[in-house]
């Protein structure tokens, strides 16, 4: 059985596959190199199933917690995804999407403060927001949802191609004291609970 990969992976893998077939005619070594690059692209865009807990607010991304701060009376937690992490993003809670908004911006490394000015997509729900942030390598954000769509906790809501950051702006009643994770801790999208009860 084939492993699942993120939607749209063919836009990266197909050109490499074609180039590999052509390259091997002229140089087997070049063809092998291109084939390996295609395998790396497929591995990067892997999309494994997850066991979603019945309660709590779950991590929207795989990676390490890089941001914990309050802004406008709401708690924000950011998760930095490096190149080895799964880059498919998931809904921290169930709910109905109110809007999906793309904001152009820079492409600073996603683990530094300046990345707050990077290109991003805001997925707004009634009580919370997921922010997909492009990094220095990540140049494309692919939301899977649109306004009016209802999702369950842990559902796939999009992916970012190559390293980047995903933030969740929590519902108003969630405080720093409710957090189960700290800065620098590793989390798994759809499985790790950031907050126990919600």
UniProtKB/TrEMBL annotation:
GO molecular function annotations of the record: carboxy-lyase activity
Keywords, sorted A to Z: Cell membrane, Decarboxylase, Lipid biosynthesis, Lipid metabolism, Lyase, Membrane, Phospholipid biosynthesis, Phospholipid metabolism, Pyruvate, Transmembrane, Transmembrane helix, Zymogen
Database matches in InterPro entries: PS_Dcarbxylase, PSD-A
Source lineage: Archaea, Methanobacteriati, Methanobacteriota, Stenosarchaea group, Halobacteria
Any one GO BP annotation for this protein: phospholipid biosynthetic process
Signal peptide coordinates: none
Protein name in the entry: Protein sorting system archaetidylserine decarboxylase
Annotated TM spans: 18-44
């Amino acid at each position: 059985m084939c492993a699942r990969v993120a939607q749209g992976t063919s836009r990266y893998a197909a050109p490499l596959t074609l180039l590999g077939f052509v390259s091997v005619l002229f140089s087997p070594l070049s063809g092998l190199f291109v084939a390996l690059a295609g395998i790396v692209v497929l591995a990067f865009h892997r999309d494994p199933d997850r066991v979603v807990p019945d309660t709590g607010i779950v991590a929207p991304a795989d990676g390490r917690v890089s941001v914990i701060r309050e802004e406008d009376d709401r708690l924000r937690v950011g998760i930095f995804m490096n190149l080895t992490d799964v880059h498919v993003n998931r809904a921290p809670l169930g709910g109905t999407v109110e809007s999906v908004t793309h904001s152009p911006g820079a492409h600073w490394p996603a683990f530094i403060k300046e990345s707050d000015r990077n290109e991003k997509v805001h997925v707004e729900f009634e009580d919370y927001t997921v922010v997909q942030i492009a990094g220095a390598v990540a140049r494309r954000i692919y939301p899977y949802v649109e306004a009016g769509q209802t999702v369950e906790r842990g559902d796939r809501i999009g992916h970012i191609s190559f390293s980047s950051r995903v933030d969740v702006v929590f519902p108003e009643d969630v405080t720093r004291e409710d957090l189960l994770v700290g800065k620098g801790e590793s989390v798994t999208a759809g499985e790790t609970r950031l907050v126990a009860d919600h």
